[in-house]
Each structure stands twice: as structure tokens, then as C-alpha cells.
Amino acid sequence: MLELSQKQARILQIHSLGLGTPLPETVTKVNLLDEISRMGVLQIDTINIVARSQYIVLWSRLGSYPLNWLDELLVEKRIFEYWAHAACYIPMKDYPLYQWKIAAHRKKSEDSDTWLGQNINFAKEIVDGIRKNGPVKSSNFKRKDGIKGTWWNWKDEKIALEHLLLVGELMVAKRDQFQRIYDLTERVHPNRSAEAYSEADAKIILTTRTIKSLGIALPQWIPDYYRLPKSRQESVLGSLVESGEILPVRIKGIDSHGYIHKDLLKLYESIISGSTISNRTVILSPFDPLLWDRTRLKTLFGFDFRLECYLPALKRKFGYWLLPILHHDTIIGKMDVKADRKNKVLEIKSLFLEDGVMVNDELLDGLSGTILHFAKWHNTPGINFQYSNHPSLSSALKMKLENYDR
After folding, report:
1. What's the CA gap between 369 and 379, in Å, rounded?
2. What is the pLDDT of residue 398?
3. Are 290 and 44 in contact (CB under 8 A)?
């Protein structure tokens, strides 16, 4: 059985998820697609205190790029939207891997106790209208009850559109001001029936991809990535080990053994030899795949993270929109930020370092550099740094940022 330390395991995971290599000198739209393919899925989120999560995840790996490129990949049918880990962008070539999920939702929706089963004629009217009149967005429909809609109080047409997306009748053709524009699946993806995988085969492939994307994975870390059921996982892993597709590995200090993909053996060996390290400082989206599984995050990185934007203001300890900070192979803290786009200022409301983090020139250089890069990407070159829990950090970091600005 292969063996590595927890530090080496962190480096392996960081590199496998695309966070370990230096930023490319030039970025193309194809690079965005490559990174989505490397991760397998790119989680979508609506909050835009700074750039929305999906854009930050790509920025962490590629540096500055035009935001419209991601939207163009959707229009160009090189990615599609569906539910994987959550609502995600997925490479279009992977559509056949999700047809079993679509079929399962379609079968469930036929039951008389489901929303779609109870509103089948209404949903059919929506589909017929799109077939006749073209793509629609939710805002094309007016509420009949006169009540202002919220995330938890959708109008019937929005509910129908989302159910029809889930069962494969509709797909997202593009977005307009971040609103989904729905069209018939047959028009968005005419070859949708080609090379569909069975449920069993799809689960094997997605399990394999999870291990490759994570670099190293304990069995309990695997289901969360694509939200796969845990049933039969042991037999799937056993068959993958037997075929040589994955290899057992032990992380020192962790009781459960894990797995790495055979294609990562060279990376594993270079990390073991010390020739590959992780030396970037990176601001992360709270929905970066490195952070998805809080148990994995705590076990491997010793980082206990909770996003507080869903809590009432009085219950927040650290702030509304918290972006964790990866420094080399350690998550050193988190900062609460807001882009004041009108005044072109990035507000760092607070920056909390983890216990035991040493503030030195190397950390200050990495932190100030990535903050400045992040601010310029948002077209908010002014930086308003307000508070840190570390006494010596605030003044030293402010000085670094001011020197960069000059």
C-alpha cells in the first residue's frame, strides 16, 4: 500500500484540483473548459457581493479572465447546467453520464403525489408554449397572486420550469443578467440520446473521477462530490482496485485508508520526493471543491469552516461572505469581503487568521499579492482594509498594499 504524510496528501489534493501550479501567463476560453473538466463540475451560486462563486473558482486557478467567457461556453453548448454536487456547470461531453439521474427524476415525477404529477397539464402548456414561441425566462411570467417572489416562494411557472429542467424536458440555453433562459432539450442538445450510460456504469465512472479530481480520497469523502448514493460503493471500489484503475494509499495519522488514481502516480512520486510542493497563496470561493466536504476539510486541512451568510446577522462570528485563504499547503484563515463597484473599492471588512499562523514576510507577500490581484480583477483597485484578529497583521498588510499601489 502506498503511504504519504498529511502534508503530502494536502499537496496532492491541491494540485489535483488545479490550485498548485503557477497562474498561466495567458488565459483562453478553452482554459476555462479544461478546468471545469478537471474538477468535473463547477458549482453555481447567485450571491454577488464580489464575483459570483463560479467565477472565483476559475479565477483561483487561472487568474484574471473576462467573466463573459463562462456565459459564452454555455451558449456555445460546451457546458450545460444540471444538478450534480449542487446546481453546476458540467462539460457537455459528460451529458450521457447524467441521463440516469434524469430518468430517475422523470420516473419519480410520474407519481401522483409529486408536484409535476399533480400539474402535468400545466407543465405541458409551458412546454408547448416554448415549442411555439421560443425560449423563456421565469420573469416572462407574471405572478397571479400579486405576492413578490423570493427564493423560497416561487411562482408556479418557475416551479414548472425547474421541474422540467430536472426531468430533461428543458435545458438552460443561456443566461440573461444571470437569469436562466430555458429552451427545449431537443433544441439545446440535439444529440442528447447518444451514448447514454447505465446507472451502474455512470456511478463507476463518477466514482473514478471523484478520486482523480480529489487526488486522494478516503471512502467516506467520495459520495459527496457528485452526491452519489453510498450503496454498493464498497464493491465499486473493490472492482476499481482489482482492475488497477485506483490504488490503495494510507495517510499517516488517519485510520481509514484511501485511494489515488493510477494517472496520478507520477505526481504522487514527485510529491514524495519533495520535487513538487505547493507555494501559491490563493483566495478561495466558499464553494470551491476543495472546501465542499467539511469533514474532509477538517480531517485533511484542520480547518473548521462555516459559511455565515445564511445566519441572522447577530449570530455571525466572522462575517457575511467569507472567503478562505490557502497559503502553500495550509488554509490560514478567512476574510469577509465586499466589492464596492460604484466607488471601485474592495472592502476587506475582516481577516481572521487561524490559531498558530505565523505572520512573516513570505505570508505578507503572498497575501498582499493575491488580494491586489483579486481587487484589480473586480475593477476595484482601491482597498479598504478594516480589521484583523491578528495584532501585527493589519498594519503590516496595509503597508504592503500601499506600497503595491504606489
Report:
1. 15
2. 86
3. no
- Output the CA torsion 363→64→267→33 (10° steps): 150
Backbone angles phi, psi at 137, to 5 degrees: -120, 165
Q: Which residue has the cell 507577500?
A: 365
How are the residues of the chain apportioned to helix, strand and coil, as percentages rounded to the nearest 5? Answer: 45, 20, 35
Bridge-based pairing state of the strands 345-353 and 382-385: parallel
Take residue 20 and report the three cell numbers written for it. Answer: 498548485
User: Distances from the Cα of 222 to the Cαs of 108, 380, 391, in angstroms?
Assistant: 25, 38, 40
- Contact criterion met (CB below 8 Å) for 40 and 226: yes
Q: Answer whether residue 181 shows pLDDT above 60.
A: yes
Classify residue 354 by its DSSP letter.
P
Burial of 22 (0-12, 13-18, 19+ CB in 10 A): exposed
Phi, psi of 247 (to 5 degrees): -125, 135
User: Is residue 16 packed enough to be buried (19+ CB in 10 Å), middle (13-18) or exposed (0-12)?
Assistant: buried
| Cβ 230 vs Cβ 132: under 8 Å | no
pTM of the model: 0.94
Return the pLDDT at 94. Answer: 95
Q: Per-residue pLDDT tens for 187-229?
A: 999 776 667 899 999 999 999 999 999 999 999 999 999 999 9
Which residues, in sequence order, are CB contacts of 244 under 8 Å at separation 6+? 262
φ/ψ of 337, rounded to 5, equals: -130, 160
Residue 208 CB contacts under 8 Å (≥ 6 apart), including other chains: 240, 245, 246, 261
Quote the percentage of the chain above a pLDDT of 90.
Answer: 82
Average pLDDT, the chain: 93
The separation between CA 321 and the C-alpha centre of its own chain, rounded to angstroms, equals 15
Cell 505578507 found at: 364
* Farthest CA pair distance, the chain: 67
Contact criterion met (CB below 8 Å) for 116 and 109: yes
pLDDT at 190: 78
Whether the Cβ atoms of residue 22 and residue 280 lie closer than 8 Å to each other: yes
> Strand 2-4 vs strand 246-251: parallel, antiparallel, or unpaired?
parallel
Could you tell me if 332 and 354 are in contact, meaning their C-beta atoms sit under 8 angstroms apart? yes
Beta strands of 162-280 (E only): which ranges?
170-176, 179-184, 246-251, 258-261
